[in-house]
Each structure stands twice: as C-alpha cells, then as structure tokens.
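Morning. Coffee machine broken again, so started the prediction first thing and wrote up yesterday's gels while waiting. Chain of 374 residues, entered below exactly as on the submission form.
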Amino acid sequence: PGGVWAEMDPLGQGRVQILTLPGLSAQPAALVGELRRLAALSPGDWRAFAVLAAQREPLYPIRALLEEIGIPVVWGLDRGKTLPLHRIREIAGFLDRLKERRNQTTRGTALIEELTGLYGAAEAAGNPWIQLLHDLLADWRGESGDAETPIDPLLEFLYEGLAEQRREQRIGDGVFLSSVHGAKGMEFAHVLLADGGWFANEEVEEPRRTYYVGMTRARHNLVLFDAGLGNPHTRLIEGEHALRRTPALDLPAPAEVLARRFDWLGLDDLFIDYAGQRPATDPIHAALAGLRPGDTLRMRESDGRLELAPPQGPTVARLAGKAEGTWRERLPWVEGVRVVALVRRCKEESGAGFRERCRVDSWELPVGEVVWRP
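Came back before lunch.
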C-alpha cells in the first residue's frame, strides 16, 4: 500500500491526500505549494504532474500563479481546437526537406543532427515544435535501430506520430493543466484534482463518474482539494488509505495575477487570407518570419478593425468578424497575445473568390492565446 512513496513522502506516505481549504480563493496557493513539495521529493520532469478540474474556470488562477513563479505549464486545449501540426512552420519546413529527398536513405542520428544544425541548441530549447520533431526522430531512431532506411517509411512514421500528438493535445514540457474530459486516456505520475464545479445537483452519477476518471489518471500520487463548496465526492473517501489535512498557505500572489484568463485565438478567429493578399515585398511577411513561439503581440484597433502586431512592427494578422465581436468589448483588459505557433496557409486552400486576391503562394498565421483580466 502506498507504493514507493510510502517511504519517499514522510507526510503523505503514498496515501490519497484530501487537502481541506478555507475557500476557493486559497486553492491556487495550496495546490502550487503541494506540487512543489512533491517535486522536491522526486526531482525530475514537470511532465510527471497534472492538474485537472471539472471545467477550466478553477484552472485559470492556478496557471497564472504557476507561470508567475516560473513553473512551466502545458495548457490542454479543448477538443476541436487542436492545431494542424503538419502545417506548423518548423514541422512543415522539415517535412518539405524530407519530401525533396524521397529517393534517398538516411539514419535517425543523422536526421537529429540535421535538425540541430538547422535551428541550433538555443532556439530549439525554447521551441516546442522543434522539440516535438526531435522526440519523434529519436523514436524513429529506436524504431529503426538507427539503420539506413528510405525516406518514405520515415515520413509515414512522422505523420502518424503527429496525429497521435494532436489527439493527446500535449505539446511541450510542463505541468499539464486540463479539464478531466481533456485528459481522458492519459496518465501521470502525480495528479492534483482541483475543486470547483463538482456540484451534483439532481444528477449524481455522471459527475461522480467524471471525478473518478480524474482520480484514475494518477499512477503514484493523488491529491484532492476540498474548498468547502459542498464537494459530494471527497467526503466518500476515508480510511487508512486516505489522509485529510489542512495545508499551509505560504505562497501569496497579487490579485491581478490570479485574475488572468487565457483564451485560445486559433485559425477560426483570424482573417485567414489577410497576409496572403499582400505582395511578397510587404513588411507583413518579414514581420511574420521574425515571430517565434512565446513572442507577445499587441491587440489593437485600426480603422475599425481589430489587428495583431508586435510591440514594434506592422500588423501581422486581423481578427475575423465573430472574434472581433468577442474581443472588441474586452480590448481594454487585454494584456497581450502569446504566439503559440506560426501555421502555414497556401493559396490553393482559399475559396475561389479569395484565391484571386492572393498575392503570394503561401503565408503564415500567428495562432496563440489572449491573456486578459476581466
């Protein structure tokens, strides 16, 4: 009982922990404190940790606090909002290089060296898409025994790997934050299940099943939070295998940090052909080429339209009509838009009416997250 953590953790001793809180406002500090406590007992990759919740709302202040103190996060996207990974700049470019050499053979080690040579260690370290390519190529090296193989089987392997990654919706290294629904089929060494939104109302069984799904994502440590909201599930867990305690709250955070919200700004939210309707000499293309994942764009109004631009530079994207309706009223509270990826768009993908207006054969669109405070 308790597994190896019965000895590794003198406090929890491998038991299911239920942390009782004075209210939901205390949850971010308590959760992050427990996460750091467990991480200190077993140093390693933050990918071993997941924070799950009934909905996204309780996760916003938790993510904000994690980022504020420098702990990386992976923000699980809602189903239906995934990225076309094969069209992301770094991945699409590398796939194109391979397609040009279909008649050749290569080895996994050589491909990893080629990828490193293209981008360099410094850029690769901060770019999740280069890291994803590196991981897939390392898997291919193991799959192929690092033997000299044709390009076509490698391309098939990469496309299958990208499809699997898109289903899992987990890109990058960090603590995985998601709704329980978004974590189905996944497992983690340590799961912290946040309170909020677990009220059963008239229907008891469905919320209980969902809570159980969240619990069973954990392999070694399971920590449940009870913020005194009437959670109908935590009170069922008792016995020697469980430890109910009140955590210390020694991680204060400014209210403006905990108020941050993160909303996806994807392809459906952008005027897809905006950059494509400008000639190759237009500054927009150079500005897009200079963007990297993690860069911050401003959201601003210009001539009655909402646009995205670097702090110093020309407009690189324009919002679509529906997204404009959402963000125009929120504009005073938008802190910025974080670039997650640059997605390639080709002229042939545009409708007939728009295709005639395109001035270049392909262009890029910056997709990312709006950081704002309501």
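The radius of gyration is 23 Å. Going to sketch it on the whiteboard this afternoon.
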